[in-house]
Amino acid sequence: MSADAPAFRIPVFLRGEVIEDDWVRFGGRGAPAFEAPDPRKYAEKLPLPSPMAMADLHALPFEEILDVLEALGKALVFEKNRHIQAAYEAGLVAANYPASLLKNSYVGLPFVFARDNVREIAETRIGIDHLEGWVPRTLRDGRVLRVRAFGARALHVPAGNGGLVSAVTIIRNAITKSDAIVKVPSNDPLTAVAIARTLAEVAPNHPLTKHLAVAYWKGGDTGIEERLYRPEHVEKIVAWGGYASVKHVTRYIQPGLEMIALDPKRSATIIGPEAFASEATLREVALRTACDIGVANQEGCACARVVYVLCGTDTDGLARANRFGEAVYEALVGLPEHISTAPKTFDRELRDHLEASRMVEDFYRVIGGERGEGAIVVSQMDEPVDYAAMLSGRVANVVPVDDIARVTDAVTAYTQTVGVYPESLKESLRETLPLYGAQRLTSLGYACHVSVAAPQDAIEPVRRMCKWIVEETCDPADVTPMWRAPAPETTSN
Predict the structure, then answer these.
(1) Which terminus of the chain, N or C, has less C-beta within 10 A?
(2) What is the pairing mode between strands 135-138 and 144-150?
(3) Are 292 and 445 in contact (CB under 8 A)?
């Protein structure tokens, strides 16, 4: 490949049609150069021409949606799907994942689309009866409400941290019978396109295929976004990603256009003194902690970064914390390659901070990190490192504490997942930590073992993707009409 050749090309998938024309160059200056069809030429073609075009999708029986998604999942087997293989090759260039981790995210795609998995998401997050018809309820005043979940015209801005995000986006859209425009992330350039192309092969001309558009444009291109992000084109914007990208979308929010923000979060870990009951227990807890740190090389919001250990800060407590840090490091570098590896790149500024921490042994003990393989920094006081927000590439900070109150001070509205050991400690914290901002409490070792059937970021995004429509009947024999109601009594002074 010549120096001027693009690293990859991102076609436009336009409701069953694949467009590979009008190429425009993007990237460069340190990022891989790639090409995509001119977004200014195709922006007007991405939205539905009329809301009435949703009628075919709205009429789909839910079992038929399951049939199509199940067939799609079976067609996404990595070894047999050339589109998925191309997405993997592009990801090797564009993403910050080593090959083993990237491939693992694609190998799991058929399981995500499995029939029972999709049914569980729909049932637990919405209720299939609300997707299939009008669900009645008689209220106290005698009126009968009938409520149905309608799909919406949605625009999705998924994150690029792994192929599963695009899969979840397409599944949620299909479950809710919504129309989707998916903006391709530059660090996951071909996954959404690959799934869409496979869908078109499995179900050509099907409503699920005709209600899916996938395209790339540079985030922040107002020439594109001001034409798309309008209530006459889309009703919901589902925005994942960093602070800047989510904040940018808010400029377009207005009556008739709702944003569902899955914005960046930090996570935490809390370990009780029970971890030191025996050497075997210590090693199990260390392995669980290492898993929470190392999954996908600590790229996810749910990954552990600061680990609070209730071991005390006296001499014996610090000795326990340092021993625990050594055990976590040993488990971290020993994780299987499909879970975690030495990072593909290591942040230079973070490396400088690690080296500076090595030089102040009274404050920090740094275990590992000489080869960029990951490291554990054990604070020798009850405070995290001042660069905690930068922790990445399998670098975590163990913080010894005397009291659980020191931990709750660190939980904020930006805290997503809190991994806790033992279970009894989690149960005692579950009524308190949400008041500080924690959004998910889970067993230690399962921070990144996330179920799509659960709420996310303290909201229910699948439920919010729907429009909840009410039809009501008020029989004057049951519901006292306003024109017959007695006038309210007035009092005079």
Answers:
(1) C
(2) antiparallel
(3) yes
Section 202-207 average pLDDT = 97
Tell me the two tokens of residue 89: 């090759």
Cα dihedral value 117, 120, 121, 123, nearest 10: 160
Q: What is the CATH number of domain 12-264?
A: 3.40.605.10
**pTM as predicted:** 0.94
Q: Fold identical between 12-264 and 267-443?
A: no
Domain coordinates of the chain in residue numbers?
Answer: 12-264, 267-443
Check residue 422 and report its DSSP letter. S
Q: Residue 388 in contact with residue 306, Cβ under 8 Å?
A: yes
Please, what sign has the CA dihedral across residues 171, 173, 175, 177? negative
In contact, 302 and 416? CB cutoff 8 Å: yes
H/E stretch holding 115 reads helix 115-125
Structure tokens at 54: 């949703």
Of residues 105, 97, 94, the one with CA closest to residue 35? 94
CA distance 33 to 5: 8
Of the chain, the percentage scoring pLDDT greater than 90 comes to 87
| DSSP symbols for 63-105 | HHHHHHHHHHHHTT-GGG-HHHHHHHHHHHHHSS--HHHHHHH
Partnered with residue 150 across adjacent β-strands are 467
Per-residue pLDDT band at 293 (split at 50, 70, 90) = very high
Second CATH level (architecture) for the domain 267-443: 3-Layer(aba) Sandwich (3.40)
Question: Does 431 score more than 90 pLDDT?
Answer: yes
Which residues does 18 contact at the CB level (< 8 Å), separation at least 6?
Answer: 11, 12, 197, 200
Mean pLDDT of 426-446: 95
- In the predicted model, is pLDDT for residue 3 greater than 60? no
- Residue given tokens 């919405």 in the structure block: 126
Please state the rounded mean pLDDT for residues 156-176.
Answer: 92
What residues contact 352, with CB distance under 8 A and at least 6 apart?
Answer: none
For residues 239 and 246, give the distance between their C-alpha atoms in angstroms, rounded to a whole number: 6
d(CA 394, CA 369): 9
